[in-house]
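can u do me a favor
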């Protein structure tokens, strides 16, 4: 059964949050748009770019982009679910720090989380 919210052939847009990298920002965890591959930061992150991407594009399904996590989330139904294997890579590089990226995370980063 095909799910039009998900395109398993599209690779991720990179190894970090697109907007954070462009603005010298940082993230806590990363999320991948299941439709277009956009990598954004999670809702715990200061800028919450994954949710912003979903709102602006209508791409409402994300998948975790963290090593060892393969869950999907639908912003419309607010439910998690299992989905197909997506085009590689399935997560950010294992040597990439969390939070990240290296060199941009403030010492008091925990105070900035949502």
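np, heres the sequence
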């Amino acid at each position: 059964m095909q799910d039009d919210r998900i395109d398993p052939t599209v690779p991720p847009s990179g190894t970090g949050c697109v907007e954070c990298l462009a603005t010298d920002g940082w993230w806590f965890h990363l999320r991948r748009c299941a439709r277009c591959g956009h990598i954004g930061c999670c809702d715990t992150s200061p800028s919450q770019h994954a949710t912003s991407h979903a709102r602006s594009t209508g791409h409402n399904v994300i998948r975790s982009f963290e090593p060892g996590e393969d869950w999907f989330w639908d912003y419309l139904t607010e439910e998690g679910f299992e989905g197909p294997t997506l085009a590689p890579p399935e997560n950010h590089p294992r040597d990439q720090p969390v939070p990240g990226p290296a060199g941009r995370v403030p010492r008091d980063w925990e105070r900035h989380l949502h």
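The helical segments are 18-22, 49-57. hope that helps!!
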